[in-house]
Fold:
Amino acid sequence: MNIAEGLPQQELKNQFNKTGLRFTPQREAVWRIFEGNPSGYTISQATAALAAQKVGQATVYRTIRALQDLGYLKKVHDQNGERRFVASRPGHSHMLVCRSCSRAVECSDCDLSVLEKLISRQTGFAVEGHHLEFFGLCPECS
Structure:
């Protein structure tokens, strides 16, 4: 199942409107390619995939940034260390990325409070949050 499957289009449109941005047909096209691909895209791949729909590179960049700021895209790294973006649901979660096919799966179960406190004690940092990404082989590739 895709990460963002079942996300109502109106929800996304409302989130864009709250930030003062219009959810244009071009922005919808950007969202749709990510929504339909569990491996996500690099920015250059997204730009190439949308060229036939006359969506320009600047629109792709700005829309990816907006979707990321709203929590609907998450940044992951593929097996080559290349930065990709995958569809997600807003809120705190971590991504599991297949090192073979780059498929990404979202995991929202996360209680690292004990680890955060330990790190805080050991380093003196006031830990405010974390970003964690897991990698391995998905069921289809293992």
User: Anything to note?
Assistant: The first helix runs from residue 9 to 18. The domain at 9-136 is CATH 1.10.10.10 (Arc Repressor Mutant, subunit A). The chain has a mean pLDDT of 88.
